[in-house]
Amino acid sequence: MASRAFGLFLPVLLAAGCGRQGEAREGAGRWLPPAAKAASVDRLEPVVLPPRSVAADGSLPIAAIFPTLGRYAVSGEQSLKGAELAVEELNRAGGIHGRALRLLVYKTGSYFVDAQDAAQRAARAGALAIVGSNSSELSLAVAEQAEAFRLLQITNVSTAADITSEPETGRRVRPWVFRMCASDDVIGDLLAVFARDRLGARRVAVLYEVGRSYSKNLARSFVRRFRNPAAGRVVQEFFYLALETDFRPQLTRIREFHPDVLFVPGSFPDATLVAAQSWQVGLHTTFLGGDAWSSPLLFQRGTPPGDAYYVELCRPIRDFDDRYAASFGSEPPGCRSVLAYDTVKVIAAALQRMGRLSDEDLGAGLGRARRRLRDAVARGKVRGETGPIRFDERGNRVQGVALYAVERTPTGPRALVSGWLGAQ
Predict the structure, then answer these.
(1) Is the link from the previous residue into 110 a cis peptide, with omega within 30 of 0?
(2) 34, 95, 167, 419: least CB-packed within 10 angstroms?
(3) Number of domains composing the chain
(4) Structural domain of residue 175, as residue ranges?
(5) What is the pTM assigned to this prediction?
(6) CB count, 10 Å around CB of 421?
(7) Is 179:152 a contact under the CB 8 Å cutoff?
(8) Are residues 204 and 163 in the same domain?
(9) In this structure, is residue 30 part of a structural domain?
(10) How many whole angstroms separate alpha carbon 158 and alpha carbon 352?
(11) In what order do the strands lie in the sheet with 234-240?
């Protein structure tokens, strides 16, 4: 039963998730250690669909780099549409000091060399900034090129802390790179405080995917903030491997630990299987998850025995959703799209503060214009669809997360916004 359930979720899982993987993939599924990553690059042909034209036309070029093929394609398309909507609305309102914005769209595959190649193309094409990418793996590949070319990059939903700073020291390592959402470190801290103060938890079990950086890093930040034996707060950690579908051995040991809360910082298919199998082993406790739980398919194959909460990178925004639906005729996708929209708005606001750019600024003086834009973004404060936007000294938006509570209904589980955790 677990294997069949996993099969239903696997295609969606491959299109979701924002954590950076610790290994590189080559060809038909053979996994390589990180040391072999560089050697594999020479044997791979990047998958990049560049814009039809990058010729100078007097507009202000902004590159959008998002995956539209492979495991991150769904989230990439959602983000791209959000960026397109922002450019469309800004140009309809008159552009920036009489110049139109032009979105240079680079559609890529879901492998790091694809994003890397697209970033190089965008830099050489004269882009003033880069919006993207989606997964932390791809955003990090873009970030390395953004630093090399001294080109502003703002990622909309990539949460890995090392995109902008060193996780161990907090020192900023990429001054040209910014993040629009909360990082793994922030999310883990906020969930730990929620479990401690709002749920009154003293014993927490953490079940994470050991080979996935997103899951491992979220678990690490949660444990670091929550664990305090002197105050009576204890944590026991358990792990599983990629594509594992039978969690009953771990859940049996978790039941013997008698946790107040089970934190599962993995994907929504994993959380759903864990919930269904918790009934089988007699584990009744409160479930807690991160932003990778966000999906209409969460718990459709089995709700957890107790209460369940998770966080998302933004709140629902009805006005934006209505405009998105009017433009694209599809159901609004939520945070990926609106955060990409707000990313373009941040860049546009910085360009507005810079004054009208000359033809020389977009040509021989491009390097200077890029530096001014980067500085304007770092110093600026913007009111976006998702609330106030400002960046800290590490390039991260000062931002919390929306808290969702899962309710049981006769027609199945329903997730509703229950509050907000952290800064707004």
Answers:
(1) no
(2) 34
(3) 2
(4) 46-181+317-389
(5) 0.87
(6) 20
(7) no
(8) no
(9) no
(10) 26
(11) 234-240, 203-209, 261-263, 286-289, 308-312, 401-409, 412-421
